[in-house]
Amino acid sequence: MKLELGNFYVKDIVFGDETSYSNGVLTVNKEEALDVVKEDEHITEADLFIVKPGHNVRLVPVKEAIEPRTRVEGGPVFPGVTGDLMQSGNGRTLALKDCSVLVVGKHWGGFQDGLIDMSGEGAKYTYYSQLKNIVLVADTDEEFEKREQQKKNRALRWAGMRLAEYIGSCVKDLEPEKVETFELEPVTKRSKEENDLPSVVLVLQPQSQMEELGYNDLIYGWDTNRMLPTFMHPNEVLDGAIISGSFMPCSSKWATYDFQNFPVIRKLYEEHGKTLNFLGIIMSNLNVALEQKERAALFVAQMAKSLGADSAIVAEEGYGNPDADFIACIAALEDAGVKTIGLTNECTGRDGKSQPLVTLDPKADAIVSCGDVSQLIELPPMETVLGELESLGRDGLSGGWEGDEILGPSVREDGSIIMENNSMFCGDQVVGWSPKTMKEF
Amino acid sequence: MKKAILYINQFFGQIGGEEKADIAPEIREGLVGPAMELQKRLGEDVEVTHTVICGDNYMGSNTDGAIETILGYLEDKDFDIFFAGPAFRAGRYGSACGHIGKAVKEKFDVPVISSMNEENPGVEMFHEHIYIFKGGASAAAMRKDIKKMANFGKKILNGEVLLSAEEEGYYGRGIRRQVWLEPPVTAADRVIDMLLKKVRGEKFQTELPIPEQDMVPIAEPIKDLSKANIAIVTSGGIVPVDNPDRIQSASATRWGKYNISGLDRLESGVYKTIHAGFDPAAANADPNVIVPLDVMRAYEKEGKIGKVHDYFYSTVGTGTTQGEAARMGKEIVEHLKETNVDGVILVST
Question: Of A281, A296, A291, A369, which Cα lies nearest the Cα of A332?
Answer without folding.
Answer: A296
